[in-house]
Amino acid sequence: MEKARYFSHFMLQGKMASPELALVIERAVAAGVRAALQDRPTPTPGTSLVATDTTSLPSVSAVISSPSTATTSQRSVPLPSFPQRSGARPGLIRRRPYKTFTKDIVCLPWSTNTIFSIPRGDTRTKLAEDGLIGKISFSSEWSEVQLKLEITAIFRATFGLSENQEFPFEYLCTIKGCKKLMKPKVTNSFPWGGKEVASICSNTCLYILAGMQRPAEEEFIAVSDDSDFEDPAPRRRRALWIMRKMKLWMRP
After folding, report:
1. 25 occurs within a structural domain
2. CA distance 238 to 116
3. Is residue 1 part of a domain?
């Protein structure tokens, strides 16, 4: 028994260096256990017994050769009261949630002004008749190029654009506290993606300012500037009005 204690103490101190030594320690421990069981008196009621079945216990050499086996097997069994974590699968990429927006898009005619009134009533009806109001659907993941292509497709026929021609425009935002529109104060490199465009039309329509004139407007301006195409009746009325003004000015 003293040998078993000596070898057990020697094993706990971490002095084992070879499988042969582990086998010697195992035999000594087994012999000491058998000797102790032979000399042990019969237990009385109320006393506890130590398990004598050594077949279910792992051998000392197995524990020495792979000390992490028992720990690994215990850790692999989850406890029922321990909350389990839902680990992400390897190689699985979680996509960020995105939103889809469907808005009325209103295109204001080209102008050099910086502040615009929100079109309502007859003004809005006139814009709809001229093909300057449409419907657009986009998501927060869209890029600036995708939005430009979609808006160009909506107003291509209105402005007479070719298939490969891009529609020039600027975004407009509402001014808080009044029914006015203005150009947002941003840098030239500001990315107008889906999320940014949605931020300026969250509760309203999407307003834009055309960067070019419609072909009908250009034709009307060209004709009105040429006096050869004017009706002679308006010219006579204008001449009479000028003469009347001159008589009033020359009267003493």
Report:
1. yes
2. 33
3. yes
Residues 108 and 198 reside in one and the same domain: yes
d(CA 193, CA 145): 8
94 and 88 Cβ atoms separated by less than 8 Å: yes
Q: Using N-to-C axis directions, what is the helix angle for 19-39 and 2-12, rounded to 10°?
A: 140
Pairing of strands 206-210, 169-174: antiparallel
Work out the number of other CB atoms within 10 angstroms of the CB of residue 171.
20
Count CA atoms closer than 13 A to 168's CA, side-chain side.
6
Which residue from 26, 29, 39, 24 is spatially nearest to 1, judged by alpha carbons? 29
Q: Are 68 and 41 in contact (CB under 8 A)?
A: no
In the chain, the number of structural domains is: 2
CA dist 133 and 148 (Å) reads 16
What is the pTM for the complete model shown? 0.51
Mean pLDDT for 160-177 is 93
Query: Same domain for 191 and 109?
Result: yes
Distance from C-alpha of 49 to C-alpha of 43, rounded to nearest angstrom: 8
* Residues 82-110: tens digit of each pLDDT: 555 555 565 556 666 789 999 999 999 99
Domain extent, residue 181, equals 100-216
Whether residue 35 has pLDDT greater than 90: no
Residue 218 is predicted with a pLDDT of: 53
CATH number where 170 lies: 3.10.20
Query: How confident is the model at residue 157, as a pLDDT?
Result: 93
Domain assignment of residue 114, yes or no:
yes
Q: How confident is the model at residue 228 (pLDDT cuts 50, 70, 90)?
A: very low
pLDDT of residue 108: 96
Same domain, 129 and 22: no
In a domain, 33, yes or no: yes
